[in-house]
Amino acid sequence: MTTQSDPPKRNGFRLSQLIYDTRYRSITLQVIALLLIGGGLFWLYSNTVTNLAAQGKDFRLDFLWKRAGYDINQQLIPYTSNDTHIRAAAVGMFNTLLVALLGCVFATILGIVFGVLRLSKNFMASRLAAVYVEGFRNVPLLLWIVAIFAIVTEATHQPRDFKTGDASMLFNESVAITNRGTFIPSPIFGAGWELLAIVAVLAIGAAIWLRKWSIKRQAATGESPMPIWLGIVLVIAAILLVYSLQAGLMFALLSIIKVAIIVAIAVIGYRVAKTFVPNVLAALIAAALIILWQYFIAGPFWGMFGFQPAFDPSVTFDYPELGGFNFSGGLQIRNSLIALLLALSLYTGAFIAEIVRAGILSVSKGQSEAAFALGLRANRTMSLVILPQAMRVIIPPLISQFLNLTKNSSLAIAIGYMDIRSTLGGITVNQTGRELEGILLTGMFYLILSLLISAGMNWFNNSVKLKER
Amino acid sequence: MSDTHAQTVRYVRDSMIQPSEPPNAQTGAVKWMRENLFSDWVNGLMTVIAIYIIYSVLAAIAPWFYHSVWNAGSLNECREVIAINSPNAMHGGGCFAVISDRWLQLLFGFYRADLHWRPILAFVLLFVALGPILFPNRFPRPLMWLAAAYPFLVVWLLWGGSFWVPILAALGFVIGGIVGYFGNKVGGLGVAVAAAVVSAVVWWVYLMPVVNDGLHATVAEARLETIAEQTEADLIAIPEAQEAIETRMAELNARVAELDAQLEEIVAVEETDAVKAEFNAIMDELETVRAELRILSRDAYYYSQKSTDAKTIASNLEMLPEWKAAAAEGDEIAQRNLSDAYGRLGLVGLEPVTSREFGGFMLAIIIGVAGIGLSLPLGVLLALGRQSDLLVVKVACIVFIEVIRGVPLIVWLFTASLLLNYFLPPGTNFDLVLRVVIMVTLFSAAYIAEVVRGGLAALPKGQYEAADALGLDYWKSMRLIVLPQALKISIPGIVNTFIGLFKDTTLVGIIGLLDPINLSNSIRASSDWNGVYWELFIFIGLVFFVCCFSMGRYSLWLEKQLQRGHR
Amino acid sequence: MKKSVLLGAVAVAGLTAAAASAATLDDVKARGSLNCGVSSGLTGFSEPDANGVWQGFDVAVCRAIGAAVLEDPTAVEFVPLTTQVRFTALSSGEIDILSRNTTWTFSRDTDLNLNFIGVNYYDGQGFMVPKELGVTSAKDLDGATVCIQTGTTTELNLADFFRSNNINYEPVPIETNAEAQQQYLAGACDVYTTDASGLAATRATFEDPSAHVILPEIISKEPLGPVVRHGDDNWMDIARWTLNALIAAEELGVTSANVEELAAAPTNNPEINRLLGTEGDLGAMIGLDKQWAVRAIAAGGNYGEIFERNIGESTPIGLARGLNAQWTEGGLMYAPPFR
């Protein structure tokens, strides 16, 4: 910018140089800007002080430590109406974080699925994806939140119906989907659960290490890496093994034998059947055999031994039960959370789908042709060649979508999801009349959260960015 | 030809065989389906799932739409109609009668029906004004002036007032421009900008109110007599008109009550086809009666407003001498009353409408358009500031943009409605719509700044260097070279920001403005329509969809146009 | 005190040049209209019709004051306000009077620099349940899911009630009546709680109102009344005594139908005469003319007429007078004497 030839040799410094000399002008301008900004801020501050004084108010945060007096339905940390406003704010804060985090995950999944579907050659699928994207993008989120809340409520049964038999619980009486929320069994951690937790962490760590190691091995030898599903199976197997061992040695042995019998039936059945019929049919036969065994033979067979091993696991489950008005026990995932999550992730997912579509389209056609030439199948082409390249285009706008989702979660009040806007910025402000403090604190929370998210995502973006050499 | 050949050479084919039809599986719908729906089993599965989804959605909502009612006076009446006409409807039907009753309100809020032409004209003029901005080559140059005058014109159209107010307001810019022009000659750019801003502000804050009041006073004094006569005549004529309307309304209301009673009887007796026919005949008559009632009550409202205005003017006329005397002695309140009274008496132009009467989609559009329009210059400045070499300016811009973008619009709106009163000097008090527009402007300025920053970044570096090489200073290079290109690139982004903002205007309901969604709550408050749920949301959602979808398509189209321009 | 705002020039028509300093009465008279803060929609209390004309019980109070002060019940500008901004709007001068089902409490009357001018409706928070649940008392609601229309005190009253009775419940706070109603009807809540008047209004619109019962317990005292600013005692007097005039008129048998007639010449009842200005000059004491109360009553009738027309038993809402009957009929409506 500064295309300055040699500074003219003049003796001394004159005041006019502050304006006309490009060397000093920028300093002058900055000082003026600083003065203006400082003056403006001071003006706002002094106005606020005068106004507060005129209304007999002051700026104090001590209301935060007074009794809140209202109840909150969804609490990730314990809270009663006797707790303080600040604890209520914390409950709201965790609720915001929960819905934002889950929302980002679901929105990304939805976005990728529908973004890819929209480019699909299947006429119905691509049109349906287009309807989804346009429908959600072009109608205000508030309407969607309210509408989805109502749909979720109307489409599910009320707890009363479970009494009369109009509705029934799923999965062996363990899950109840009602219009007040979905009730699932909740774990109760008994003695020894720590061991289970340690094993789980170790198993996950080992699986990740194995996966990384196998990828390195692929680079060295060309052997394909360990599939992700195998890692998941290994982790689950390890956890189940320790879980059943903890529950009782005999129980564990018996369980292993039971599983082994099932595996044996499957493998032997499949092998034998394969010699007579096509593979698909063989697999079906094997499956039929397992069902036959498990549901009709296993019970009487094991009953013959009349042996019940001791079963005393470290983690048990609390199952939901229909009580007076409602289900009790278990874990209630409230409809407000489900509806908010659905609305936020469907809405943001529509935007992400467009971003994903643009990202995929930005990868040149030669890349997919080259992948096909190498003999990769369509889905492998997508996951190994196209998506990794599209990622670089996708991630920056994705960050701002995540930020939008987080901020949009503040609409939760419309359907009674108690996020920080509803607790601190809503009921607390209403109760205490401290609107200045309450709204400032709420704003600060969102600001800090946004800055943290964008910092984190920028770091991630930098790590996947094309390393230019 | 062929005959001769036929005789001489026996086995020569003289014409081509018509190509045979492709096999059935390779033509028309079948082929299309094979390729597009069932190319492999994954696709087939997807197709089946998609069809199932469409079927289940349609099965859920189609009957409800099919049984919907468009002609009824209240939700209960809707229920009766459905019960009589389609007793087998599983989930009942929609009561869209609420839309036929209130659609004008949903579009215009409480804006008086006889003045609806003003917002409509403003809306149409918006496109006329946007034309020369978006397509400078296709429109004659003078139309640019319309675009420049549009903001003043639209404020006048919507809020009403004397015709010279927008001119006086625009004069502020002219004065600023003139002062800036001479300032530039005398003292350079910085001085020019400072002088222009100061002079314009001085004009608006100190001189313009004086001129405005003066004009009003002059006009008012000149026609005091006529106004007095006119008001007197009005005060006689209006009650007469009101009485006529009231009589007719009473008749019609009696008829409605009669018909209602008949309906009641019909509902009570058994349902046969004859009863159904009779019922529907009564409903039809009710509709015509109600249509007339609707118009009458609109007129009644018009006259009640007129009568209020006339009474106010009469009392102002009465008080005028007293206020004049007090004002001359320096009584501040009397001075204010006097200027208010003159404002009413000396009005030459459109009838004033307070922004409290704005609502519905009109409000959404006003906030959206004003927000984007006003935020554009601010956003461009912020984007430039963010790229500036001046550290203080850069940091200030970054902080502003990030703070605004980091906090949800709801919180900003609360700030506008609750906190702005704290931040501004004591005694300042202005319109909530204006406050919201200011807040929304600041909000969207931060987003526009990011869009423009993208445009600036997309510009090849050579353009900046070329501008420097030409010896242009910073502002000239920006104005002549960088911004025209960068803004062009950012137009689709700006349109998308606008769509987002337009949708976000639904949030102003949370602070008490009657946007479409909050207005739907007001409509539900009437005991006729309390309990109506989906119908209002469907209507609102549909209007939003149509607006946003067409804007989105336009933005895509624009993007393509601009891309072509770059090649 | 009026400060110009920069943009004021551009949107001069959009500016409301209200300043809290001058006497409210003078302001209102000069403006030619009364700015009245109401709820943006509460069935029976404030609801705009298809033309945007406001109607309802709270609205009628403002119209009466408008008639008393401006001789014109239609010269009232209604400002829809949310619960959160209502007091700010009043103290900043945006409105002259707040008639928005606001509960009279100690802290609001004192700490917020407001003055309640009286009570126009004695309300209380109640419960509504579907009849098929077989609940007869709120104490049977252990474990119930409760839909709350969030307000200012609703959540607190509810928490206190259930806590003091040692009952568990699950609160579902919902912002607007429409959503709360939808949730309740879909069975997502067992109970709906808000002010009893609101419950009645909501129940009246159900497809089958008889399938729902309002429980006998009223768990809070909600004396609703119009509010004015601190510091303008004359304006407070006008508002307070207009409300009292409406109440007294009912007691004295003055209705919108006979008020003109009674005001034409002195009657045998001196209290009526003083109220209607045919004897003495009460109006002058509050800065109005003799006919102020006549106009206020003629605008929408006396208290009983207003009640009957907007929320009474002949309307779909169908509220009984209950506590809001005249003191002579066992209610709490008791206007101080006009002398």
Apparent shape of chain C: globular
Secondary-structure-derived class of chain B: mainly alpha
**Percent helix range of chain C:** 25-40%
Which strand-content bin applies to the residues of chain C?
Answer: 15-25%
Determine the N-to-C terminus distance of chain C.
38 Å
Distance between the termini of chain B: 57 Å
What would your notes on this structure say?
The complex is a heterotrimer of chains A (469), B (567) and C (339). Chain A is mainly alpha-helical. Chain A has 15 helices and seven strands. Chain A has helices at residues 17-20, 22-54, 85-118, 123-137, 141-155, 159-164, 193-221, 228-247, 249-274, 279-305, 335-362, 365-373, 378-408, 420-432, 435-464; strands spanning 176-178, 181-184, 186-189, 315-318, 321-322, 327-328, 331-334. Chain A has a three-stranded antiparallel sheet. A two-stranded antiparallel sheet of chain A has the order 3-4. Chain A has a two-stranded antiparallel sheet with strand order 5-6. In chain A, a hairpin with a 4-residue loop joins strand 5 (321-322) and strand 6. In chain A, helix 3 (85-118) packs antiparallel against helix 14 (420-432), helix 7 packs antiparallel against helix 8 and helix 14 packs antiparallel against helix 15. Chain A is globular and about 105 Å long. Chain A starts with 16 loop residues before the first helix and ends in a 5-residue tail after the last helix. Chain B has 19 helices and two strands. Chain B has 567 residues and is mainly α. The longest helix of chain B has 59 residues, at 164-222. Chain C has helices at residues 24-31, 57-70, 86-91, 106-110, 154-164, 177-185, 196-204, 233-252, 259-264, 270-276, 282-285, 292-300, 303-310; strands at residues 34-39, 47-48, 54-55, 76-81, 97-98, 114-116, 121-123, 125-130, 144-149, 169-174, 191-195, 212-214, 222-224, 227-229. Chain C has a five-stranded mixed sheet. A three-stranded parallel sheet of chain C has the order 4-1-5. A two-stranded antiparallel sheet of chain C has the order 2-3. In chain C, strand 2 and strand 3 form a beta hairpin. In chain C, helix 2 (57-70) packs antiparallel against helix 12 (292-300) and helix 8 (233-252) crosses helix 12 (292-300). The two termini of chain C are 38 Å apart. The model of chain C is unreliable at 1-20 (pLDDT under 50). The chains are: A mainly alpha (469), B mainly alpha (567), C alpha/beta (339). Chains B and C meet through helix 4, helix 5, helix 7, helix 8 and helix 10 of B and helix 1, strand 2, strand 4, helix 6 and helix 7 of C. Chain A: It is found in: Cell inner membrane; Cell membrane. Chain A: It is a multi-pass membrane protein. Chain A: Its main location: membrane.
